[in-house]
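Re-run with default settings, no changes from the original entry. Doing this only to confirm the output is reproducible before filing.
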Amino acid sequence: MKGLSKEVKSAIIIGIVIVLLLVLGIIYGQKEKTEVAETPTTTVTEITEETTVAPETTTVTVAAETTTSAQVTVPEGAALTKIADGNWELQKDGAKVGTFTGIAENNFGKWYVENGSVNFGFSGKVVFNGVTYDVENGKVTG
């Protein structure tokens, strides 16, 4: 280091010290990592619950039997009519016959009407005017 100025010699010595500190830091860090790796570890297992969603279903009311108590007739001039929301009603002069409950007929068959509307959710037996009808989803089947 002959011929070098004091400042250059000092810079070299400081550089060597820094390099030694870095090397010692790396060696010490490796030792710490080794010690940590040798300590017992705890394993955490995540348990998830699987949920199955059923497809959309339609609820159907199953009744043992519905009976009318008196002789009931479909009002003259009334007809089963499909309304704007897609449901079917017994209508006369453009108005729902909400007092009618029983069996009514159109070109598509016989239907169980409850309070003036076809009850597509009803399945069971209906006794109407002394006759027993088998009904599935509002339609008379037998």
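Residues 1-43 form one domain. Residues 6-38 form the longest helix (33 residues).
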